[in-house]
Input
Amino acid sequence: MTQPESLPLAGLKVLDLSTFIAAPSAAVVLGDYGAEVIKVEQPGGGDPNREAVGFASYPDSDVNYPWMMDSRNKRSIALDLKHPQAHDVLVQLVRAADVLITNMPPAVRERLKIRHEDLADINPRLIYASLTGYGETGPDRDQPGFDANAYYARSGYLDALRYDGEPPHFALPASGDRATAMALVSSIMMALYRRERTGQGAMVGTSLLASGLWSNGVYAQAALVDAFLSPRPPRDRPRTALGNCYRTSDDRWILLTLPREEAGWPLICKAIGRPELLDDPRYVTSASRRAHAVELTRELDAAFALHDLAYWRAELGRNRVIHSVIQRMQDIGHDEQARYAGAVVDTAIPEMPRTIAAPIHIAGVTPRLAHRAPALGEHSDEILREAGFSAEQIDGLRAGGAVG
Output
């Protein structure tokens, strides 16, 4: 296993001044690959993500899995940034930092004097990473942005996903946040690479809106050239029956995926035991199959309903039909391939022995083992001592309310 000191980001010091999921997740990824991450939190409650397991849209659990996943391997200092003495502490931390991550609204940063321009002279090598809902400028820059409203709704993602005649459906919680986190990681790494060549820090960032548009790039780019598709038709009248989902006799679902339709169509006919469909005039070409997608869907529905999932996995595999089982969430813990892919990894957290890894692979490098997320202010004294504060000074900061 890779030792922490030999990880690619070992020695990098990161201040995480962010809350909820997108920006803190970016800090997690840096920490996974060796960075030392200090989470700066408001005394009294800290990051609201500490309480996310109780949100209505989250699966209920006695394990505080959102907090442990999004703050693993971090240290926490409780610092009231509205307090003048706390600002002095932050300045001292900034002097030694390589990266600062924040998702505070621009007006709050200005009020707290923690904008990039406020800190750049203190540490000219600092990479100041900003995550916003809608961007740093413009009429909506101060609007509250979350993945549901900025990433999914504003980008057109939810509209593109809805079925004809149905309202938009909500996306799964924090999925846009995690995609955006990787964009922020990319921005930070580019700035670090530039700093290696120039010695200069920079302000970098992304927004949930920009990341949502990038993820919805096919449809968003189509809109920019005035190309539009009508809302998605329901499953029983698809645009193509060969890119559709089918139910097996044991109530599981299989997704067919045929990027090379002409080559794959004969393989499907063989797999389902219906070679006569090859000569059916409704299905002889790609265009005719799409014109008769409703009828072909009925044929395939009837065929897949005859056998269970195990049968179809074997038969489709034997006939080299590109397909995937639509995995149920409860199956993820038993997905051996997810472990081989490095997507599910072991932890040192007794109540959460496995976790989801960042989607990054570096040959010969094993990311840091996940240890539990910190209690609020758990490392305040330790971090202050490392920053050069004496015991008396620390006592004074705590007594004055600057440190929790």
In short: The longest helix spans residues 175-198.
